Amino acid sequence: MTAKYFIGIDIGGTKMAAGLVTRNGKILLRRKVRTPSKCTKKVFLSAVINLVRELIAEGDLTLKDIAGIGIGIPGVIDPVHGKVLLITNLPLSGINLAAELRKTFKLHITVGNDANIAALGEHRSGLGKNAENIVNISVGTGVGGGLIINGRLVTGSFFAGGELGHMIVQMDGPKCTCGKKGCLEAFAGRWAIEKAIRAGIAKGEKTVITKYAQGKLKSIKSKALRKALDKHDPLVTRVIKEAAKALGEACVSIMHIIDPEYIILGGGVIEACGDYMLPLIRKAAESDTFLSTVSGCIIAKSSLGDDSIILGAAASASQGR
Ligand SMILES: [Zn+2]
Predict the structure, then answer these.
(1) What is the number of other CB atoms lying within 10 angstroms of the CB of residue 293?
(2) Measured in angstroms, how far is the CA atom of residue 53 from the centroid of ligand 1?
């Protein structure tokens, strides 16, 4: 009998979520735990193993019912071998994550960059279903990207492709984590939004965000940003408008290079502030008269939300199975 289910895992810097997914791409069960912080490789691996075991037990299943496990994780990943080439915040650089987990689960295991995997999820189950060319932009702490071209996920010749967050949208603009200046992420990543807000406060700009973030201005939750937007807070509104404009300009470049059917935006910042940002992003993109005449590209908020990585990871594990 063919195993019926796949497990999709979304590993983030603060949380890990796993879903039991059917062959038709339906999530039957989910589990979410905190990602162990500042831990060893061994502690991290056992946390992932426990998460999978708990999910299987909750579904009253055994390993025989599972056809494969897919993982989406931030970092530069070699998806062919399931190896983590480069990752910050987790003790996994240089580790073959698929091979490590196969020692416990004798199953087909795939690993991919989280924003790449989210693009796969959008292509299989989201707005980009049946589309040939789609681009995913995940706007969270950082900004990730994923490209589906001619129906296939494109990761590049050296697995570092699709990093849309490091597309330069302003020469000599604000400094990015990558060392360059003016990257999309340096405007739209949550770290950049937080930094711009702190700079505004230091200059004496009035804002309600200090109250909503409970004084924790080093890491401002996306929901606090949303609340401040709803109150028409001038500082947060200005910074979010800048982020939306940068995303709009990035969309223009993406449309010129790839001309996709959809550009799908997701991630914590978009989940919380997308309703406000999307019209501004579209406005910036539509200012290109050439594209507005030729392209029918739809810029939209993800309909899958957080589930895009779980579904994409399951889809990646199901390929050829
Ligand atoms: Zn950068």
Answers:
(1) 7
(2) 37
- Distance, in Å, from the CA atom of 272 to the CA atom of 199, rounded to the nearest integer, reads 22
Q: CA-based Rg of the chain, rounded to a whole angstrom?
A: 20
Cα dihedral: 219, 220, 223, 228 (round 10): 180
Q: Is the pTM above the cut of 0.90?
A: yes
Q: How far apart are CA 4 and CA 240, in angstroms?
A: 44
- Residues 118 and 80: their CA atoms lie apart, in Å, by 17
Q: Output the CA 213–ligand 1 centroid distance in Å.
A: 26
Confirm whether 5-121+307-318 and 130-301 share one CATH topology. yes
Q: Let me know if domain 5-121+307-318 sits in CATH 3.40.50.20.
A: no
283: number of Cβ within 10 Å? 12
pLDDT tens-digit profile of 246-293?
999 999 999 999 999 999 999 999 999 999 999 999 999 999 988 888
* DSSP output for 74-118: SSEEETTTTEEEE-SSSTTTT-BHHHHHHTTS-SEEEEEEHHHHH
Largest CA distance in the chain: 67
Which residues have beta carbons under 5 A from ligand 1 (an ion)? 166, 176, 178, 180, 183
Q: How far is the CA of 112 from the centre of ligand 1 (A)?
A: 20
Give tens-digit pLDDT for 210-240.
Answer: 888 887 888 888 889 999 999 999 999 999 9
Q: If DSSP states are collapsed to H, E and C, what string results for 118-153?
A: HHHHHHHHCCCCCCCCEEEEEECCCEEEEEEECCEE
| Cα 257 to ligand 1 centre (Å) | 19
CA of 104 from ligand 1 middle (Å) equals: 37
Fold classification of 130-301 (topology level): Nucleotidyltransferase; domain 5 (3.30.420)
Sign of CA dihedral 83, 163, 10, 1: negative
- The domain ranges of the chain are 5-121+307-318, 130-301
